Amino acid sequence: MPNSPDDLEALTAERAAADLAYNDALTRLDRAIQRLPADFPQPPPVPDEHQVTPLNTLWKIDMPPATGVAGPFVGAIRRIVAPLFEQQQAFNAAIVDHVNRTVPVARETRAAIESTLTVMRDTISELIGFQGLLVEFLQQVTPYVDTRDRDVAGLLRGLSGAINGVADEVLKRSEATLARDRRHDMRVEALEATVAALREEIAGLQRRDRRDA
C-alpha cells in the first residue's frame, strides 16, 4: 500500500505509462487488420467449346466413290492416297478425342478454382470480421478495468466508512465506560470519606462517654 506522496506519484506514472503502451499496441493491432484486396482474383473464363461440335462432325474424311467412266482412274488414285487419308483421319480422330477429353477437365478445373476462390474470399472475410471483433473487444478492456477499479474503490470507501463508524462507536462506548468508572470511583471515594467521618464522629462520642463516666 502506498504510504507517501512519492509512492502515489510513482503509481500514477506507472499507470499512465501502461495505458499509453496498451493504447499504442491497440492502435498497431487496429492498423494490422487485413483488408479484402480490391483486385481479388476471379475464376478463369469458361472453356471455349465453340468448335467442339463441328470437330465431332467434320473429323471423318469421306473419299469419293470409284464409279462411272473415271472409276478405274479414281480407284487407282484412291489406292495411292488411301494411306494419307487414313493417317489424316487417325490424326483428326486423335485431336477430336483429345478435345472431348479436355473439355470436362477444363470445366471441372474452372469449377474447382471458382469454389476455391469463394472459400478463400469467405475465409478472409470471416478473418477480417474476427479481427475487427477482437479490436472492439480489446477497446472495452480499459473501460471495464476502470469500472472494476471504481467498484473496488467504492467498496473500499464503504468498508472504510463502516470501520470508522465501528471505531467511533467503540470509542464512544469506551469513553462512556471510563466516565461511568470515574463516577463510580468518585462515589466510592465520597462514601469512604463519609464512612471515615462517621468513624471519627463515633470515636469522638466514645471518648466523651468515657470521660463522662
Topology:
Layout: H1 5-31, H2 52-58, H3 71-139, H4 141-212
In short:
This protein is an all-alpha fold and 213 residues long.
Going by helix content, strand content and strand pairing, the class is mainly alpha
**Helical content class:** over 70%
The string of secondary-structure elements, in order, is: HHHH
Number of strands: 0
Query: Averaged pLDDT, please?
Result: 78
Number of domains: 2
Question: How many helical stretches?
Answer: 4
**Main sheet, how many strands, which sense, barrel?**
none
| Poorly predicted runs | none
CA gyration radius, whole angstroms: 57 Å
Instruction: Quote the beta fraction.
Output: under 5%
Distance between the ends: 85 Å
Describe what this molecule looks like in 3D.
The chain is built from four helices and no strands. By secondary structure, it is mainly α. It has two domains: 14-136, no CATH class; 160-213. The longest helix has 72 residues, at 141-212. The model has no long low-confidence stretch (mean pLDDT 78).
Key traits:
213 residues, mainly alpha, 2 domains, 4 helices, 82% helix, rod-shaped
